[in-house]
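Reopening closed ticket. The problem is back. First fold of the pair:
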Amino acid sequence: MSKKEAVFKSCLQPASKVLVSCRGLDGENNALAVGYCCNCSYDPPMVMVGIVPSRHSYKMIKESGCFVVNLVDEAYKENFDYLGSVSKRDEDKLLKKSIKLSEGIKVNAPILADCPVNIECTIVDSIVTGSHEMFVGKVEHVHADSNLVDGEGKIDFGQIKFL
């Protein structure tokens, strides 16, 4: 098979779609679609999310020191598309779409209750990589729909119909 040079931007695909939820120091909640998200350590468990500094949520995450990664399935596609295309600077998008929130257990940030998996994280480091600041978050608590979790607490990701 022959090879052809491809575009560099976001060349490591596919990756599951995620929404990152956060809370500002003033109590304001928000959620945004994040294109850069990955595991970066299993001991201790850590994930990394990339946020563009011009995004409304950037300051909230930077100041609060925490965030929640919400894995998105097909049933949440309309909300994902909306939350990823509208800024909270322009309207209260969580209220407008009646996004169901629950409180984090370990971090002061909301979880998106209708997403199948929610990963609460505390920021332990960050690095500016050009267009994004990559926040490294230590996993503090993982919520998963009960039908996805086996007797040992492992998530059966094969049951989730990711976007």
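Second fold of the pair, where the issue appears:
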Amino acid sequence: MYSTVLQECNQSHATLVAVSKYRTMGEVMKLYDQGQRIFGENRVQDLILKKKAFPKDIEWHLIGSLQKNKVKMIVGEVALMHGIDDIELLQKVDEASHQKGCIQNVLLQINISEEPQKHGFSLENFLENWEKIKGLDLRHVRIKGLMGMAVLTEDESLIKSQFIALKCLYDGINAKDGHCFEILSMGMSADYPIALACGATHVRIGSKLFGE
């Protein structure tokens, strides 16, 4: 299944982030041996442990929510944080990166499904928040783009509408602010083909790669 998913991503010029949470070393190394080098973890502690145990040429992404008390542990340890969901957290990442002497790449998470249990900036109010973010003196974070998760449903038209809304936001900001974004992270095992069709540059896939 890995080769099929990878081919689909390559055809769409998208990057595959293999979600390795809860996976054994053997399962992860099977994908590694097939050439996969980008892996994503949801939890800070698990990511740090795996980073120490696995080959050093793996590029690690933090794809889950980041608690403010874990920021200092993770800055500089990952190539990309997908889930920056408020301005205060963004500022804490910038401050911790400054203290560590690094530049941290991040994505801003948008709650495109508008579900209260999900994290992220409101889609409706994001442009207002984006203007606030642009006014901040952030020297040690690099905002690379946006991330969003569609609602878990069999209604493909609803999933598509949410991905299109995020792509429109992404394109609108790029058109206005000189193509400042280059990453649009959306799509998981259940809906990644729709995400790819809607313009995702990165998809986060776990169970589909491991034969479930």
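Update: turned out to be a display glitch only; the data is intact. The domain at 2-205 is CATH 3.20.20.10 (TIM Barrel). Residues 60 and 146 are 18 Å apart (CA to CA). Please close again.
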